[in-house]
Amino acid sequence: MKKNDPNDYVTRLCASPSEVDASAWNALLGSQDSPSPFLRHEYLAALHDSGSAVARTGWQPAFVTLWRGSELHAACPLYLKGHSYGEYVFDWAWANAYEQHGLAYYPKGLVAVPFTPVPGSRLLARDAPARRALLDAVLATCKANELSSLHLLFLSDVDVRACADAGLMARHTVQFHWLRRDWPDFDAFLASLAQDKRKKIRQERRKVAEAGVRFRTVEGTAISAADWAFFYRCYERTYREHGNPPYLKRDFFHRMARDLPQHWVLFVAERDGQPIASSLVAVSRRPDGSPEVAYGRYWGALERVDCLHFEACYYRPLQWCIEHGVDRFEGGAQGEHKMARALMPVKTHSAHWLAHPAFADAVERFLEREGEGIAHYLEHLEGRSPFRQA
Where does this protein have coiled-coil stretches (predicted)? Predict the structure, then answer.
């Protein structure tokens, strides 16, 4: 334990989410500006307890928590990483540069949700002073462990400001999000699109229907054990087809079904009464229980059907979002093709600290050039709106 004199906090590092009380952690999350189900204690614990994000897979937890007496005032999920997989903000070139100069880039420090490129709160804190003290404690932990660097990914606006105040370097990437308008149904949504985009979506949906594919949508506790098992077959097969084992273990989804069922919606594609594909969408909920934000997460298929991916991962979820009054659908990392489905470009944020002064200076110059490129890219994308011109 380490005393933080200016704020009278005690810092504790936790080698497992189970070392932090779940209700205390979730209470912090509930008071943040951009909470999501992915930083809930249950989600992080499932990643750890299922063996998906643990030291042997390159994710060594060292969660940083700040206490006053028995009260938790701030916390974040810090991992000591032995690689850069599962992050979606790419720093392979930085690691290669270190190696070429005979320096060790790994282990590095990472504040993020493993395998989950969803923007949201990362530095959970009761107030701004606690947040700054938390960031100071994270940096002190990285220095004490002689880590090469610290990376905080997919930050909320409040986190971005805290990192800027602490002198960390900013980096930006682009995602594509769908935002709700006053569309009463999917047809009205289509009518708002330019003619070529509208025509293409109708053609793609028609191909799936003419192939005899029908969809079944199940939510929350209505997702049966058989549904979850079928989904995992699809998810695992997709990874295996690309030559990799899946990041997430089967037990992770067992824990999601048990501990966070209210945050999942499953779309199952069936043909001749047999399931052939599925997509899994996560949702955050308003205090009244209604869905507020949807997140496209996982997909897989056992049979190939033309345009089935678009139907399962975009059109069915968007139709569900319109029907349920969802404010936003986030399509995940990268994917300029999503603009044709009315997902618009959004800037996402990360923050970085490097211990080596010369490399820090070089990375800062690189980020300035990269930032200019991102700004031009966004300007270019904004001129390609899929919506009808007024």
Answer: none
